[in-house]
Amino acid sequence: MIEYCGRVSGFASATGIGSYPGSDARQAAEVVVGELHQLAHLVELPGRGIGADIIGRAGALLVDIGIDTVPRGYRIAPGRSAVTRRAISLLGEDLDALEEAWETAGLRGSGRTVKVQAPGPITLAAQLELANGHRAITDAGALRDLAGSLAEGVAEHRATVARRLDAEVVVQFDEPTLPAALLGRLTGVTGVTPVHPVDEALATSLLDQCVAAVGVAVAVHSCAADLPWKMLQRSNISAVSVDVSTLTAADLDGIGEFVETGRVVMLGVVPSTAPDRRPSVEEVAKAAASITDRLGFNRSVLRERIGVTPACGLAGATPQWARTAIELVQKAADGFADDPEGI
Questions:
Q1: Are 121 and 150 in contact (CB under 8 A)?
Q2: Tens-place pLDDT, residues 65-110
Q3: Residues near 62 by Cβ (< 8 Å), separated by ≥ 6?
Q4: What is the DSSP string of 246-295?
Q5: Positive or negative CA dihedral for 10, 264, 53, 208?
Q6: Are β-strands 128-129 and 218-222 bridged in parallel, bridged antiparallel, or unpaired?
């Protein structure tokens, strides 16, 4: 019997994926804390450049492993590089802003939950380069070392956030590269140096290592197609976050089976950039309900096992749309909590 860490149902609410537009951490924190009254999150502001994106942020989290920049992104580097120091500084700014917004709203000790995000072990190893220019994921030792360092660092980060906010803190691992890594679709340095598929059992064990280390409920987010539902079902994660626009019939089967295990699926039903016409709250709610209806679930599942999110991160949105997207997902989730049958 798989035992899931933490309160699984905490993810059955509205939240953001993580990234947000602009460079003003205080403004972003105020919006997220003010609008998301069930599951606020620590924002990421990749618009600030190096050290602020999903992989750069890992530089602030990894234990005893540093990073530096290369033309294609980031590489593993010895010592505490300027990039690592910048990542740590930016994360500190974000956490200071969240703590300020949290205290201003009078939420310390309120029982509300906060989510923090980090790259998952497979995506991190796929995107970081070794000194020889190859992806770290091509070296079994480097892959395991990164996963162990990540697990330890995220556990420490989560505990720090929980202490500073006096709140329950859950974790989301972002794994946009997971499907490509498992299917052998990653490109190598040259055409004659292919990146072989990652063994699914290994990927599961590394993810579960991270889950065990943080000791709370964990979600995996991926807005990529071809999600490995069987692997995700075998893992110890509590929730999966998806972009509904990528879903196929096979994904629907995977969602159904995952929900039947008592876990949560978070449905990305609000566009991550402004559409031509703003959807109504009712349209957002119906987009989520239509999926569970097709799977034959009772509408009560919307309250108990379904979360509502934007389709992906909001870094590419305007500030106005980012706020609107957050408002829409919260209001849709409120409708599920109040009267799922009335959707």
A1: yes
A2: 999 999 999 999 998 899 999 999 999 999 999 999 999 999 999 9
A3: 146, 149, 150, 153
A4: G--HHHHHHHHHHHHTT-EEEEEEE-SS--SSPPPHHHHHHHHHHHHHHT
A5: positive
A6: unpaired
Residue among 248, 245, 242 at smallest CA distance from 306: 242
Whether 281 contacts 320, CB under 8 Å: no
Global pTM?
Answer: 0.96
The rounded Cα 18 to chain-centroid distance in angstroms is 7
Our CA angle for 60, 66, 72, nearest 5°, is 95
Q: State the Cα angle at 222 between 89 and 19, rounded to 5°.
A: 35
Q: How many residues comprise the chain?
A: 343
Would you tell me how many other CB atoms lie within 10 Å of the CB of residue 246?
17
- Is the pLDDT at 189 greater than 90? The verdict is no
Q: What is the four-CA torsion angle of 100, 106, 112, 113, rounded to 10 degrees?
A: 0
What residues pair up with 68 in beta bridges, in sequence order?
75
Which residue ranges form the domains of the chain, and what is each CATH number?
8-48+92-123+137-342 (3.20.20.210)
What percent of the chain is modeled with pLDDT above 90?
93
